[in-house]
Write a structure and sequence with these properties.
Layout lengths: L36 E7 L3 H12 L5 E3 L14 E2 L9 E2 H14 L3 E3 L3 E5 L5 E5 L4 E9 L3 E3 L15 E2 L2 H4 L7 E5 L3 H10 L5 E5 L9 H9 L3 E4 L2 E7 L6 E6 L5 E5 L2 E4 L3 E3 L30 E3 L11 H23 L1
Bound molecules: flavin-adenine dinucleotide.
Length: 344
C-alpha cells in the first residue's frame, strides 16, 4: 500500500466480513464430534487464536476454533496495509494476512467454526463452551483469545473516514502522516504517548483535551507541555469529522463557552482507551486493573487450571499482531504441557 495521505493500514469499518469460510459440513480430518471431549477449544480468530490453532493442530490436539459469526479474522480484517508484520517485504493487506493464517491452521486440521460463543463454564476438568445455536462443546483445555476493542467517539463520519485519516493506533499508522498536521484526542497517558510518538512523523500534533487538565501522570503531562510540536486545545470536544474521501478538518466545541470552531488536520488519532473483550469470562477468571485477563508472568496460564488466554485480551500495552500471534503460540505450548501432565 502506498504512503498516500488518507489511505493507511487501520481502516476500521463495520463490515468485519470474515476469512474465507469452508462449505457447510466441511469438517476437517481429525475433528472430534460435538459429543466428544475435545482436547482444546479456542475462542477467537485473530492472530492469537489462529496461531494457537496452528500450533495445537500441529501437536495433534485437533483444536476446534470458534471464530465468531461476522467478526472472524479479528481486528486486522478492518485494516488495509499491514507493513510491520515480519515476513512480508512489501507489506500485506490485513484480510489477506488473516486469510493466510486461517488456511494455515486448516491445513493442519484445525476445525474452524464461524459461530459466536455465548457462554463458557471454565471450572473443573471438563469445560464447556456454548455457541449461539445452543450447541455445547466440551473441552479439557480452553484458550480465550477474544481480543480488545478500541473505544470510538461515536461520530457519524468516524467509520466512513477510518483508514482515510482516522486511526486508533499510532504504532500502526503514524508512518503514513509524515509532514502533516494531525490531531490526537484524549487526556490520559496513552493519548500523550501517542501524540509524542506521532511528532516523529507529523509537523504538528494538536492534542484535544476535554477538560482544562490532563488525566495523565505528571511525567507524561510535562512531556506534552515541553514538546514544541505538540499544541494543546484545552476544554475542547470534537463534534464532527469533515472530508469527502479523507480527513480535512474537525469541528470542535469549547466545553466551557460552547463556542464552535474548526481545526484543519489531515489525520485524527482517537486515544480514549480500549476495552478488552472479557464479557464471557469476567465472572470466572481473575482480571487485572486494566480489565485484561490476568495471566501468570510470561505464560498464558489464567486463574483456573486448563484455561489459557492469549493476545490483546491479556495485553494492556503492546497490542500488535505480532505480539498477539506470539502470545497464541505461548498458549498452545502451555496447553500441550498441561494436557501432557494430565495424561502422565
Ligand atoms: C484499525 C486497526 C489497525 C491495526 N493495524 C495494525 C497493524 O498495522 N499492525 C499490527 O501489528 N497491529 C495492528 N493492529 C492491532 C492488531 O490488529 C491487534 O493487536 C491484533 O489483531 C490482536 O489480535 P488478537 O488475536 O488478540 O485479537 P483480535 O484480532 O481482536 O481477534 C479477536 C477475535 O475474537 C473474536 N471473538 C470475540 N468474542 C468472541 C465470541 N464470543 N465468540 C467467538 N469469537 C469471538 C473476535 O470476533 C475476533 O475475531 C490494528 C488494530 C486496529 C483496530
Amino acid at each position: 500500500m502506498s504512503n498516500q495521505p488518507g489511505i493507511f493500514s487501520s481502516a476500521v469499518n463495520l463490515d468485519l466480513g470474515g476469512a474465507s469460510q469452508p462449505a457447510p459440513g466441511d469438517a476437517p480430518a481429525g475433528a472430534a464430534g460435538d459429543d466428544a471431549v475435545h482436547d482444546v477449544v479456542i475462542v477467537g480468530s485473530g492472530p492469537a487464536g489462529y496461531t494457537a490453532a496452528i500450533y495445537t493442530a500441529r501437536a495433534n490436539l485437533n483444536p476446534v476454533l470458534l471464530a465468531g459469526s461476522v467478526t472472524a479474522g479479528g481486528e486486522l480484517m478492518n485494516t488495509t496495509e499491514v507493513e510491520n508484520y515480519p515476513g512480508f517485504i512489501d507489506g500485506i493487506m490485513g484480510p489477506d494476512l488473516m486469510n493466510n493464517m486461517q488456511q494455515q491452521a486448516e491445513r493442519f486440521g484445525a476445525d474452524i467454526r464461524y459461530e459466536d460463543v455465548v457462554s463458557v463454564a471454565l471450572e473443573g476438568e471438563v469445560k464447556t463452551v456454548t455457541i449461539e445455536d445452543g450447541t455445547v462443546l466440551k473441552a479439557r483445555a480452553v484458550i480465550i483469545s477474544t481480543g480488545s476493542e478500541y473505544r470510538k467517539l461515536g461520530l457519524e463520519d468516524e467509520e466512513r473516514l477510518s483508514g482515510h485519516g482516522v486511526s486508533w493506533c499510532a504504532t500502526c499508522d503514524g508512518f503514513f502522516f509524515k509532514g502533516q498536521n494531525i490531531a490526537v484526542i484524549g487526556g490520559g497517558d496513552s493519548a500523550i504517548e501517542e501524540a509524542t510518538f506521532l511528532t516523529k512523523f507529523a509537523d504538528k500534533v494538536t492534542l484535544i483535551v476535554r477538560r482544562d487538565e490532563f488525566r495523565a501522570s505528571e511525567i507524561m503531562r510535562q512531556r506534552a507541555l515541553d514538546d514544541p510540536k505538540i499544541e494543546i486545545r484545552w476544554n475542547s470536544r470534537v463534534t464532527g469529522i469533515n472530508g469527502e474521501n479523507k480527513v480535512e478538518s474537525l469541528d470542535l466545541v469549547d466545553t466551557v463557552t460552547g463556542e464552535p470552531s474548526q481545526l484543519a488536520v489531515t489525520g485524527l488519532f482517537v486515544a480514549i482507551g480500549s476495552d478488552p473483550r472479557v464479557g464471557l469470562v469476567k465472572d470466572q477468571l481473575e482480571l487485572t486493573a486494566e480489565n485484561t485477563i490476568a495471566v501468570d508472568g510470561r505464560t498464558s496460564t489464567t486463574s483456573l487450571p486448563g484455561v489459557f488466554a492469549a493476545g490483546d485480551v491479556v495485553d494492556p500495552t503492546y497490542r500488535q499482531a505480532i505480539t498477539a500471534a506470539a502470545s497464541g503460540c505461548v498458549a498452545a505450548v502451555d496447553v500441550e504441557h498441561y494436557l501432557a501432565a494430565l495424561d502422565s
